[in-house]
Amino acid sequence: MKRYSRWCGVVLFLMWLPTAMAAEGTTKGPVLIEVERFAELPEGARHPEGLTVDPESGEFFVGTFDARTPESARSNQLLRYSAQGKVIAQRSFNATPLTGLAFRDGHVYVLNFGASKLQRIPARFDANTPIEDVATFAALSPPAPTERRIDNPDGSHDQVIYGAAGLPAINGMVFDRAGNLFVSDSFQGAIYRIADATRCAPCKVEVFSRDALLGTTGALPFGANGLAFSADERLLYINNAGDGRVLRMVMPTGPVTVLAEGVYGADGLLFHKGLLWVASNQVDNIVALDEKGRVRARAGRFQGIDADGAPRGLLFPAASAVQGEWMLVINLALPLTAAEGDEWEEDVTRWTISRFRIPEAMR
Questions:
Q1: CA 176 remoteness from chain centre
Q2: Ordered domains of the chain (ranges, CATH)
Q3: What is the pTM of this model?
Q4: pLDDT, tens only, 292-325
């Protein structure tokens, strides 16, 4: 009985300890943030993938990744929303899926994944506004990045040799303050640079980096993805979706190193007030990392499908953007596997934009 009583005391103490620590204000951990539904895609539009905001007006723009077969079934759109979340205008891109978007100097820049082109359009567009071709991306030689060596704990090592068919997969982009544009290629494991991209057309595409860490052999076949600069632009941050990593590259010549691991499906990326906000599309949340790679906040979770066919919370979040005190998040909700019945994304019939209020200390 004495031994039993002693262990009961230990168990009760361990149960009491977290409560006591919280009461004394000593509990530490990431801030957990709930999200809410904010806006919907119009009828006939699906799979929102790209997102950007006009910081002055609060209007935001959404591009869709409709890659259904046959191509005649697709209806890719660039959507313009009011700051309050109402659709103002739609511009059709027909069968070619869109990925990253960026707002700069009164224009929306569009990565046309299906056409392998960077395009732009005035932000106050309507259904008939002309779309301007800015740059074209092509197969690289060699099409795959260099080999990657992985050192194992037992002293052995693996050598990863990438394969690629020479298909550009332009995905994420970010402007620097000078107006140069950096673009990721998820299949060829590359970062491109387009000098003075707001002034040229056609523009020259320069291969900026082909580091081995930009490729992937993961279940998600997308390597280099979202891009963001540090506040002083000395570091370029890069998501690797397939590896679940956030990378950083010392500007302008490297090296590329790993900042954070285990962010499965690291997709859209933005830097805001000292934090990296990463869309973790396979975990259905947005993770805020500090500049050492520690998780400081986690926003959203998947909570099921509503009666109208829309996801509740986050489902396959692909990108985020700051709108004043809010962060907007798009729910791509794209089924990835050929099997039927294994993904909640298959049940979505209405696609949405969610949002959450950025905690005051993080604004």
A1: 18
A2: 32-362 (2.120.10.30)
A3: 0.91
A4: 999 999 999 999 999 999 999 999 999 999 999 9
